[in-house]
Design goal:
The structure is a homodimer. Chain A is α+β, with helices and mostly antiparallel strands. Chain A contains 10 helices and 4 strands. Chain A has a single domain, classed as Glutaredoxin (3-Layer(aba) Sandwich), CATH 3.40.30.10. The interface between A and B is medium-sized, with 30 and 30 residues.
């Protein structure tokens, strides 16, 4: 028998709901014998290409609600969360570092991704700064100089661009966006539908 | 002891996620000894005043996803759903009829609201037409001529306007929007958070 196809998990490191789902998705998939392929992408690129927008902008009633909902949804899921003082942030450095690491050691890349998300959404660190990304990597025993050099290479930059293109080609329009056997699930709040889909093979 | 305050449920009769929550909210509230006050409003007025927008517009990847998600979320919740052929629709007549009925008989108004939602999202009827609204009401034994006359009165028109103003004053920016003791929940997918909030008095 062939193993079931992996689940694709598209996210931006600056996406709070992406963080919430990142804390859950591997365990949920594993309960159903599935692996997850993580794909950090840049929401700015996705929004530009699709015309989609963030859940709320500016100082509106909806924007205040969404900020409150990030926090409440984290409590609901039992995930630690402290609202970052700078938000959103550009995430090129973190995403490029992820793909370079993934080429060396997938499991280490996964630990790095979790560490980046927690640095931003728990410890309020400025993950847009390449120095912060290198510090996070070094804390996991990754060669800081080798990563710093890799972040400058055309190959690593092209890989992130290719992933954003692949996301758009797959129909991704936001973060988090999960695709299971061609079925799309947008938002951390689709976790319960994802669980039933995996358990039932559709509903 | 005082009874706990009722829950406020704001919705537009043209909102699919409003329909999904309408099929659940009374039972969930009742399990926790709560009543629900239903408030049909006009999303056009809310969007105009708040700058909020519908979940997706036009023929984008997100719009196609949202249409698919309406249907899948209905199956997930066990609610019958057939995508209406005309969508969205203006809902002044249905909302005004609701408020007039509510002044006569709250329970009948609730049955009427369910019937309007099902007429639109199950039977694909054009609920924007006053004649359809009158037909739905007549099917529940409501005096058709009295309702037809009521829909033309300044009092009924003013009541709907007042409800939209009250929604805006309360911070409502979309549909469905639930407020429990000052806590806001936006979207049918917040039902599980609503349930935990009612069970725990917050989390």
């Amino acid at each position: 028998m062939n193993a079931p196809a992996p689940i694709d998990f598209w996210f931006d490191f600056s996406s709070p709901y992406g963080y919430l789902l990142a804390e859950q998705i591997d365990a949920v998939a594993a309960q159903h014998g599935r692996q997850v392929r993580w794909h950090p992408i840049l929401l700015g690129v996705i929004f530009q290409a699709t015309g989609s927008r963030p859940p709320a902008e500016g100082d509106s009633a909806k924007a205040r609600y969404v900020a409150h909902d990030f926090h409440r949804s984290a409590r609901f899921l039992g995930v630690p969360y402290n609202p970052p003082s700078r938000f959103p942030l550009p995430t090129q450095a973190a995403a490029r570092a992820y793909y370079w690491l993934h080429g060396q050691d997938c499991a280490l890349a996964r630990r790095f991704a979790h560490a980046v998300y927690r640095a931003f959404f728990v410890d309020d660190r400025d993950i847009s700064a390449p120095e912060t990304v290198l510090d996070i990597a070094a804390g996991l025993g990754i060669d800081r100089a080798a990563l710093a050099a890799a972040l400058q290479t055309p190959e690593v930059k092209a890989r992130l661009k290719d992933e954003c293109d692949a996301a758009l080609a797959a129909g991704v329009f936001g973060s988090p966006h999960v695709i299971i056997d061609g079925e799309h699930f947008f938002g951390a709040d689709r976790l319960s539908q994802i669980e039933r889909w995996l358990a039932s093979g559709g509903f």
